[in-house]
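Quick start: what a row looks like.
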Amino acid sequence: MGAYQVLQGPEGYLPPAAAMQGVTLAGPGKAMIEGRHVEKQEAIECIAEKLLGATVPTFFPGPLVLWRTTDYAQERGKLIREISAEVGAKVIPMPDYRPKYPMINPEVEINPNHPNLTIWFNKIDVGVFIGVHCHQANLALKIIRGGTSCFTVALCAEEGHEEANVSLRETDNDTLRKLLATVKDLKKRRA
């Protein structure tokens, strides 16, 4: 049996946890693409290509971006908006983790307990999660991988997410600036 790959879904109603299949988080300064450990720049280039090639790329900023008021967090929000504008992405916030029952407007926010509904409704093919607490991100990423064909990206400030198709760890504002520069460079090369 070969190494388990964290591929786009749909993988099924109960996809196996990537960690239970032997996928481990990348070490400091590294990243992951489909469960493989790679150099961080390779993952940044993969993310830029996926965003520019997507039909409906979408950023999902979570509470760690939305509710922080430090200068650092405000700059982070501006960088997310700048990247999303550069690639023509939607921005659908995940302001909190409470279930949105019985109603959720999937055009306005993502339901953290059923993110697949927002992805299906908006026909999202590339979803980028940033500022989402790790435990909630892994849950949402697994649900998305199980039931949709959305390519998922986790821009994690901590150690990364084995449930994402691409995961950057230690994603600070410098990393976001590198992603923005890579997107702009790739757009120039394609023009």
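That is the whole record. The CA atoms of residues 116 and 144 lie 5 Å apart. The radius of gyration is 15 Å.
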